[in-house]
Amino acid sequence: MERLFNLDPQLLHDAVLLALSVFVMFAFLSYLLFNPVRDMLKKRQDRVKNDIDSAQKAKEDAQKLKEDYESRIRNIHREEDEILSAARKRALENEAKIVEEAKAEAAEIIARANRQIELEKKKAEDDIKKEIITVASMIAEKVVREQIDTRIQDSLVDETLKEIGEQTWQS
């Protein structure tokens, strides 16, 4: 037998046997080690993909929550403005009501004062009439004492009326 590349048959035999055993060992280890590693890598890849999907979903949910929050804030500001305007309106109504009540009370006070003035005026008139009656009775007494005639009596009455004034009798 001739040698191939100056290799002896034993070396070739050992090389083929070694190659065969390496192939069998590779197949065995591939089944035993590579498949679990591939499965582990596949599971890891799926987990990473799920994590990315969850993160994307969480990001979308966060965006929706942010939009909802901003919408609520806008609504709160609008409600705040409505409440403030309603409070201002009620304050103006209360102010108008208080002013009206004060005017009505002032008008009532003025009316009471006018009535009081009228009562005082009537009382003064009554007092003047009493005084006139007193003066007239004093004149009558003088007339009776002096026993004067009607001419003198008329002149005394006229004189007294001029002193008191005709305005008193007319009012």
Walk me through the structure:
The protein is built from three helices and no strands. Helix 1 runs antiparallel to helix 2. The relative contact order is 0.03. It is mostly helical and 171 residues long.
Secondary structure elements and pairings:
Layout: H1 9-146, H2 150-164, H3 166-170
Helix pairs in contact: 1-2
In short:
Helices cover 92% and strands 0% of the residues.
User: Roughly what is the average pLDDT, rounded to an integer?
Assistant: 86
The residue fraction in helices comes out at: over 70%
Structural class: mainly alpha
What oligomeric state is this? single chain
The total count of helices amounts to 3
Report the uncertain regions. Answer: none
Distance between the termini: 174 Å
Backbone CA Rg = 65 Å
Question: Main beta sheet: strand number and arrangement?
Answer: none
| Proportion in β-strands | under 5%
Order of helices and strands: HHH
Total E-strand runs: 0
Shape: rod-shaped
